[in-house]
Amino acid sequence: MPKMRRKSDLPSKICAACGLPFNWRKKWERDWDHVRYCSERCKRSKGKPDGQK
Hints:
little secondary structure; two-stranded antiparallel sheet; DUF2256 domain-containing protein
């Protein structure tokens, strides 16, 4: 059985859209090298300036 990890031990990145840090998630396990955005909302708004829809 694998060892448990603390949340603070997980890798993190900076979101390309909002600039906030986000941590590794199990659903990103295979694609972690390609993940650039913290959420779908940031991914959709990547080309728009802050405050615009």
